[in-house]
Amino acid sequence: MFDIIIIGAGPAGASAGLFAAKAGKKTLLIDSDKSMTKKAWIENHYGLPETTGPELVETGKKQAVKFGAELIQDTVVNVTKSENGFNVATESQQYEGSHVIVATGISTDLAEKIGLSVKEGTEPRIKQVFDVDASGKSNVDGVWVAGTAAGVSVHTIITAGDGAKVAINVISELNGTRYVDHDLLK
């Protein structure tokens, strides 16, 4: 059983995976390989002079794995409530987790299956997003949403930051106290 299952491994999902795994949470990152960032050329990302979307996505996934996240390539087809949290069904397997973070970018295809509320998107080309509160909580207890799927700007620096924020909120809930990840130079 995973503490946190993250659906999507673009900037929001991989960032959430990095923070969750680094915090010692048993983390599963499910990548459908459909991130819109894979089409991007990026010159406005703090700390990077320039990069391609595919490079950014691969680096993020590698960082999450470095800290212990399990990364699989598959497509999630359903999420259902279970006695201990959630069953997440992919095209090839089933996984169980206590919390789920949805970081599916522009896709809200899972909304009806999970029972998540959606609302109209505010970004150009984003028709609808999941309806979440400021912490990333959805209307289904234990399901959180991060990044573009949660209605934040499509810019990678913003979605990555939102993924980190939501992961920190989930970690804090699991720990029962506010979690802070701030390493010091050695």
TrEMBL record:
FAD/NAD(P)-binding domain sequence ranges: 2-107
Keyword Nucleotide-binding: no
Swiss-Prot/TrEMBL keywords: Flavoprotein, Oxidoreductase
Sections of the chain in a coiled coil: none
Requisite cofactors: FAD
SUPFAM superfamilies, per the entry: FAD/NAD(P)-binding domain (SSF51905)
InterPro entries xrefs: FAD/NAD-bd_sf, FAD/NAD-binding_dom, Ferredoxin-NADP_redctase_2
Stored Pfam families: Pyr_redox_2
Record protein name field: FAD-dependent oxidoreductase
Higher taxonomy: Bacteria, Bacillati, Bacillota, Bacilli, Bacillales
